[in-house]
Amino acid sequence: MQFNTLMLALTATPALASFNFNPLEHSAGISPYFSPHNPPIAVSPPQGCNVTRAAFLIRHAAIYANDFDYESYLEPLVKKLRNTTQDWAATQSLRFLANWTAPVDDEHLEKLTRFGMQQAMLLGADIRQRYNHLEIPKKVWSSTADRTVKSAEAFLAGYTHNNTKLVNLTQIEESKKLGADSLTPYKSCKAYSSSYGSKQSSKFIDVYTKPIIARLKAEAPRFNFTQDDITAMFEFCGYETVIRGDSPFCAPTLFNADEWLGFEYANDIMYFHNTGYGRELSPSLGFPWVNATVSALDDESSSQELYVSFTHRELPPTVITALGLYNNSAFTGANDVNQTMPNNTINYNRAWKSSEILPFLTNIAIEKMSCESPGFDEGSYYRVLNNASPQPLVGCRDGPGGSCSQDQFLKFIKTRGESYGDFNKACDGDDLPSSLSIYEA
Ligand SMILES: *[C@@H]1O[C@H](CO)[C@@H](O)[C@H](O)[C@H]1NC(C)=O
Ligand SMILES: *[C@@H]1O[C@H](CO)[C@@H](O)[C@H](O)[C@H]1NC(C)=O
Ligand SMILES: *[C@@H]1O[C@H](CO)[C@@H](O)[C@H](O)[C@H]1NC(C)=O
Ligand SMILES: *[C@@H]1O[C@H](CO)[C@@H](O)[C@H](O)[C@H]1NC(C)=O
Ligand SMILES: *[C@@H]1O[C@H](CO)[C@@H](O)[C@H](O)[C@H]1NC(C)=O
Ligand SMILES: *[C@@H]1O[C@H](CO)[C@@H](O)[C@H](O)[C@H]1NC(C)=O
Ligand SMILES: *[C@@H]1O[C@H](CO)[C@@H](O)[C@H](O)[C@H]1NC(C)=O
Ligand SMILES: *[C@@H]1O[C@H](CO)[C@@H](O)[C@H](O)[C@H]1NC(C)=O
Ligand SMILES: *[C@@H]1O[C@H](CO)[C@@H](O)[C@H](O)[C@H]1NC(C)=O
Ligand SMILES: *[C@@H]1O[C@H](CO)[C@@H](O)[C@H](O)[C@H]1NC(C)=O
């Protein structure tokens, strides 16, 4: 019987046929929203537990392109394509370029796409369904950029079934003066720079683009492909998809899985040093949101049961480090951060994957649960989810389904605060507000 079942399983999923690679799940900051189910723990609360409060930190939904990507990569490639003598119809994998037109110009930069708006609405509807038993919040929060505000509005349309008057949207300035008291604390941190990580990733960009350039040059000798052209082509897969619905740049005949993993890893190195474990500063940028959120969830008298806030791609990864998640060094007994992200070869088994950490609409949730689970003390437990995948905390998972008991969790947060709670010191800064107060009623 068991043997037959096993045989059936083997015939049903032959190893070759089951390999299904999706470049959009390896597009780093340009990945459309997806839930990686990694680790594969159920999103529904563990047996015997109900969620009593929850908080979400959400990156804005898909945009046409940001200024940096457009100016550095996309626009130069488009201009070069308009002025080339290369005959694309004579090539194989690049034939589509004969008739391709750019999906973005400088008019729509930084704006949400229609697809992005729909995804934000769907997330709102999904969260309403998952937390139908929680009170409708009085407020949600967003930083002031057009794309974060529009994401929050679309989310609320989905969450309230278009009854958006039920909830007030509070906008928080993206101001340098607010210190930790905003949804964009990195903007007021002197020690932070948006260019961190580009030097570290440059070495690996040399490594992974070299064979691609050689291959494409053989096909299209008159075009003179550069590293930046290759980056632009990978980026167009994601951007064109969230603008038009699909893109010839995603075709497996253009870039194979290995090449996509190279593009992803170069991005992972960059984000690792920009807002991840590669910089000691990172957890201090994420801690204020964690601390304020835990206070709001812990306090039985706080004004809401559900807290939702919208920000940019920089904040979620710093929150991840403040919580100690996706730490390549966890369980190694060492903390050699740079060794875990070599710049000449891919560490395939790394935990730090930017496509999982910061796709469009990425969302980190902290849930407070009331549990009566067999084998566990009755009481309150906490868990963290990233894009609907529960992420058990390192050293704080004594509860059902990898959750953490209230006492342990509050101790865990306090200990993190002792290491990472001094915003002004970490930022080498002025005497700016050092905690986040927006959730205080
Ligand atoms: C077009 O290409 C030619 C030849 O490579 C170059 O001399 C010229 O500057 C280019 N024009 C533009 C507008 O880029
Ligand atoms: C480009 O479009 C033209 C006109 O529609 C068509 O004749 C041609 O076959 C297309 N070229 C390629 C390479 O698809
Ligand atoms: C939204 O804010 C307005 C103005 O402050 C207030 O009158 C209204 O009651 C608020 N709505 C909710 C749902 O809290
Ligand atoms: C809300 O309105 C939008 C367009 O205005 C519509 O597409 C959507 O179906 C509506 N949603 C609900 C739940 O009624
Ligand atoms: C690449 O890694 C080596 C070995 O760790 C290091 O010495 C070198 O500085 C790194 N290069 C860059 C550009 O970060
Ligand atoms: C090809 O591109 C490289 C790098 O941008 C540049 O240095 C070189 O002059 C270009 N060659 C031709 C023939 O345009
Ligand atoms: C990552 O894990 C290592 C090894 O356990 C640990 O020493 C380090 O403090 C962790 N980093 C953070 C920011 O939690
Ligand atoms: C990791 O590398 C960066 C430069 O790439 C360096 O500033 C930092 O000190 C290194 N960290 C450790 C722990 O060696
Ligand atoms: C969870 O909710 C269900 C349905 O409302 C209720 O029967 C159960 O007692 C609750 N369990 C806990 C631990 O709160
Ligand atoms: C953490 O939250 C507590 C309670 O709200 C607050 O008193 C403290 O200043 C906060 N600390 C930081 C570093 O955010």
Automatic annotation (TrEMBL):
Residues 1-17 form the signal peptide. GO terms for molecular function: acid phosphatase activity. The keyword Zinc does not apply. Disulfide bonds join 49-371, 237-250, 396-404. The keyword Disulfide bond applies. It comes from the Eukaryota. Keywords: Disulfide bond, Glycoprotein, Hydrolase, Signal. One of its GO terms (cellular component) is fungal-type cell wall. PANTHER family: ACID PHOSPHATASE, PUTATIVE-RELATED, MULTIPLE INOSITOL POLYPHOSPHATE PHOSPHATASE-RELATED. This is Histidine acid phosphatase. It comes from Penicillium ucsense.
